[in-house]
Every structure is written in C-alpha cells, then in structure tokens.
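Q: Hi! First time asking for a complex rather than a single chain. Here are the components, and I think there are two in total. Is that enough to go on?
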Amino acid sequence: MLSARPHSALWHAFRQGDRAAFQQIYGLYARDLLNYGYKVTHDVPLIEDSIHDLFIELWQSRANLSDTDSIRFYLFRSLRNKITKTRNRDLFFQAADINDAPLAVDDFIIENTLIEGEEVQRINQQLLKSFALLTPRQQEALNLRFYQHFSNEEIAQIMGVNYQSACRFIYAALKTLREVVRILSVGLLWVGLEGF
Amino acid sequence: MNYYLFNAEDLAADDYFKEWVCSPTPDTDAFWKTFLHEYPERYYQLEEARQLVTGLREIQCQPGQDASVERIWQRIDQTLEPAQPILLTRQITWQRAWQMAALLLLILGAGWLGMNQLQNGKTPKPKLAQAGNDWVETLNEASQSMEIQLADGSLVKLQQGGRLRYRKELAGPLREVYLTGEAFFQVRKNPTKPFVVYANGLVTKVLGTSFRVNAPADASIVTVDVKTGRVSVYANQPSRVQDPESKGMVLTPNQKAVFHRDAVTLDKILVDSPSLLISRRELQQFVFEDAPIARIFGAIERAYGVDIIFDEEVMQHCTLTLSLDDENLFQKLDVICKVLDAQYKLIDAQIVIYSKGCPRVN
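A: Yes, that's all I need. Here is the structure of the assembled complex.
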C-alpha cells in the first residue's frame, strides 16, 4: 500500500501506447483516487468526471512523460486541481460552498479486516464520528497522510498550501482525535484488567 | 530524535512512527521495542498513537468503489475508442496474439454457424458470438453487410469493416451498444429502456426507431441520419453541470446530425436525399391547380417531414400548379424556385425560401 509505483516495465509499455498497460495503471490508482476524491468533495459525479478527464489527459500526454515521473503524486495533485477548478466555476451558479459542508458519518464504513475485538471497533466507530466533525481540509490532509501515505511536503503541494499549513491541518486534527482514543483507551485498559 | 518527549499526536504525526505501524520491519520493530523497554511509562502514548494511525487508515476505506472504478474505466475506454487503430499496428505480444486468435476463431465460428443456418434454409439470423463476459464484440470482416439481431429483437445491419460491441442480454437500465464504422439500426420499441449507441464520442439515444450511424474509426466526423421516429443525439461529454443530452439535438426523419469530433460541434442538416414519409396513395392526393404557395409548402412539409420557412405576406400572391410525385425533394424545390424566381437555402435542416413576392393577378 505504501506509495505503490507501477513496475517500470508497465510504465514503459504505457508510454509506448499499450492500452492494456494503461488499464493496469488505472487499476492501480483508481481506488485510491476515488477515496481521496470523497475527501475533497461530496459530489460523486464531479469526482468521477475528474478522474475520467485525468486519465484521458494522461493517455494523451503519455509521449511527453518521463521515466521517473512520480505518477502517483501527479495524479493526486491533478485530481484535486480538477475538482477545485470545476467546483469554483460552479460556485458562480450555486451559492452554497461545498467546501464548508461537513461530510456525513453514514458515508463511511469501517473495514474491520485488520482489527479485531469489539473494543477496537468501538474506538474506530468513535474515531469515525469525530473524524466527520473535522474540517474538510483536515479530513483531506489526514486521508493523504494516513491512507494514501504521502509525506507532508507532498500533501502541501497536492492541497496547494504551504508546508506549515499542511502540518497544522494534520496536527490539529490528530490532537482532536486523540481525545477519542485517550478516553476509550482507558476504558479498554479497565476491560483488560478485569480480565485478570 | 528524542521520542521520550513525544505525546500521542506527536508520534502519530511522525513519519518514522507511522511507517513502523503501517509496515513494520525488523529494524523498526527492534527500535520501538527497545524504546518501550527503556521507557515503559510512555506505553499509553505509544498505544494511543498506534490506535490513531491504524484507526485513521481503517476509517478511510470507502464502500462500493468497485462499481465506480469499473464504470469510470468504461467511460475512459469509450472516450479513447478512436485510438484503437493505432494500437493494431503495435507489436503483437504473445498474449495479444492468443486473444486475437481466439477472437478470430469466435468470428469464424459465428460465421460458420450463420452460414450453416442459411444453407439449412432456416431463419437467417447469425448466431450471437459466445463470450464468457457479458460483452460481445462483432467485427464484420466480410465483403458485404451483416445482420445482427440483439436480445431485444432489434436489428443491426453492420456494414463492411464495422465493429459492434454489445451485451448479450442487453442487461442494465439502458440498451447500450458501441459502434465503429457504419450501421443501420432498427430498434424495437421499449420506452422503459432507451437504446443508446456510442460512436466515436457521439451518443445516439432512441426509444424505438430506425436510423443510420456512420462513425469510421479514422474519420473526424460522425453522422446519424434518421429514417423513422425520433432520435436524440449528443456529444459524449459527461458533465455534472447539465445533462449532456440537453446540449444535443433531436432528429426527426430525413434529418441528419453531423458531429465533428475535434471541435465537438453538432450540426443538423437534411439527409442527402430525403425520402417520402407518407404513402404513395396519400401523395397522389397532393395535386394543386393554381394553389397558393402556402398550401404547397405545407404539403411538402408533410410529405418529407421538413420545415419550410418563407414570408407568407410577401408570397401571398404566389400560386402554382403542380402535383407532388416521388421525385427528389431538392429537384422539386429547384423547379418551384425557378418558376417563382425565388431561391432556397438549407439552414439547420430547414428550408428557407427567399422571394421578392409575386405580382397580384386580377
């Protein structure tokens, strides 16, 4: 999961115009891009349109891409640019700022494959609720950091903010979420002790 | 780094710590175990931070993405459709060679089955090519057109070199097919399930009608002309701001849409030789003797389903004697204009008559 890069052979084949390789590259990143898209906006058609355009452009400019391009970083940054551009354009028509609309809790589902135990699940549920109360930018930064595993520098560039701001988003968000973990962890500790 | 002073959020924000939680290595494992061994009182900070990192990763998972991933790919694939011929000239890998051989075998098999049925004097329906997947692709490599019957009973006459991709069962809310090349469609009516043809960036949507789509793989123009019914055409540019269909146009019989792929423009014109939309018997009733031009134009409008625009006031004294037979519409207009000393132009599938009027006859 950590910054998966396509094999250089795959990347090379794609640049030569191999559609199958292109599809594999799409398969590598589509899920993560969608996931990230949900953090930037709640507008699913907009996300899908943007991803569509992004890959069309990628295909069309394949001849100009270099061997060492950090494709993953490029895709995330372009996706965000596309979404915000369209959104800003739409704001002329729609008064409401989507940026300020908090995401609904119901839109997330916890995947429990890796964690076990009801307590851990409860902590994550709680974490999820608190996560939904964070500002959209904090949510986005956390997604880029803990799900997509970008470095703080990359996050700053993708989000189009300076390095300090990116760090601030992450740190402030972690501080808020930590309260959830702290209180519940104490509960977990007690449950753990009762076991003895 | 002095991790002793780090609280939970500091740790969660730390690259080295996060890396250990997400993908531990013997080295990092050893480091953090040693750390805990030395400072057992930092256990809760560490545990909380670990919970934050793993929890944050877990809760970001989104459900139901596979469908979206697949759907977007379909769209990308479709947008890139014209790039296919370039692909074919590419070096052929073994895997591809097998795929092509399999496809060829399928086509040959389907052709053989079709031939067999023809020879047996049974219904001349070509057998649908079988495929493991829902989607079936038919390429007409024969020197003549080929008829394909779809699951809903609609008929597609695929011209030479044409390529049609469709679902065997036409599953889903739409009856969707993808076309490269030229084909004539006779669509079985089904108002609840529109029939949609995607061809080189142009979408043609109908409920039940007959029309022709011509989308050569390497040409920059796609045309759709309508024989019967109504057809909606629009550029395949999914947009969130408005329904792309609302930017398209509706075609009626004898109208033709010309789509320029590069400029993404859509023009409506008349087909090259409009056909009569009324029966010949009906046509025979259109005999005019010294009739006002408005009546004659009205009859032509009905017979060919075209719009004729003229200034009724200016032409109020124009009269003609003629009968409408099944000769070419444009020849007829030529004759009328010659007699009346007028001119006509075709603008957006409408016939506009320019006339200075006729002298009043007493």
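A: Chain A is about 70% helix and 0% strand. Let me know if you'd like any chain examined more closely.
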